[in-house]
Amino acid sequence: MGETLPQLNPVEHLWEEIREKWFPNRVFNSLAAAVDRLVEVLATLENDLDRVAQITGFNWIVNIRKNAT
To answer: Is the pTM here over 0.90, yes or no?
Structure first.
């Protein structure tokens, strides 16, 4: 019963980070405004690879052999 389930989809944690940090309780005047905000957030994350690695770098991903056959 005390087992922890593997982290199968790290991108879900990235979306959770985006929702919690950049979209908490936000109301936008238009869909375009929400898309503009998302583009801004994704550009920020693209330039902060250490943060993305911290959010998504689960052991099972980090430890995959690069040249596995």
So the answer is: no
Q: How far is CA 42 from the centre of its chain?
A: 9
For residue 61, what are the contacts with CB-CB under 8 A and spacing of at least 6? 10
Nearest residue to 8 via CA among 66, 69, 63, 58:
58
From its phi and psi, is residue 25 left (phi > 0), alpha (psi between -120 and 50) or beta? left
Query: Tens digit of pLDDT for each residue in 18-42?
Result: 999 999 999 999 999 999 999 999 9
Of the CA atoms within 13 Å of residue 41, those in its CB half-sphere come to 17
| CA–CA dist 57, 40 (Å, integer) | 23
Domain ranges of the chain: 10-62
Tell me the HSE value of 63 on the side-chain side, using a 13 A CA sphere. Answer: 3
